[in-house]
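Subject: Protein entry, chain in single-letter code together with its fold tokens

Area: Proteins and the way their chains fold up in space.

Attached in line: The record itself begins immediately under this heading.
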Amino acid sequence: MRILVCVKRVPIPGARIPVTADGMAVDDALLGHTMSPHEECAVEGAVQLVEAHGGESVVLTLGSADADEQLRYAVSMGVDKGVLVETDGGDWDPQRTATALVAAIRTLEDEGGPFDLVLFGNESADAGGFQVGIRVATALGRPIVQGIKDVEFGGEVADGSVRVQRPTGSASERYELPLPACLGVREGLNLPRYPTMRGRLQARRAEVASTAAHDVGPGGQSLLALQSPPEQVSTTEIVGAGPEGVDRVIEVLTELKVLS
């Protein structure tokens, strides 16, 4: 079987994200980068499925030449090869991104045959748009389910279907999709492995294919400005030590309506 995973280079989640003076871009000069956590689980899922059923796994990203780092990391985890769809590094909206990915996927399938599964992260860690996977699946004419936390094949892979499950509050939904299909994976599908030293050495030597992005011009969205939310400042009051602090503690608990 053939599995493709689409990933995105994003600032490390949890980092303080500065913006440029004009408010039109993220100032990432001092930021570390990674792939989104959802996508890391998608990569691990692809590697596990190929280990279990045989075949080939490919990782694909749209971005600047710096995104080669994330492709090689995926290769160090066990993916067979990486493909970079290179842009000038500017921010692409979901429409443009999906259009470029569809063109790249069709080229890869013309060369090596159709992918049984195309995996996406449920959403990217930076923009959180929830759109790209659905747009790509629709353009390719393939079914997609988002929010996946379990993937299994019934019987032989040759039966042409995949069963998936996603949590919905206190219950879960189960789907059976005909192949080829697309899936939006959520963090928690699995525990991504740490690359071994051998894997890292293989990733250094791996050949990452690069192609120019197919761009049809501006999409339907335009950036107005980026804003950093105001920092939340907290203060700490030392009410005293020993018996001297009892009266103030009672006052504070009364203000918080813990005591009446």
In short: The two ends are 66 Å apart (CA to CA). The chain has a mean pLDDT of 86.
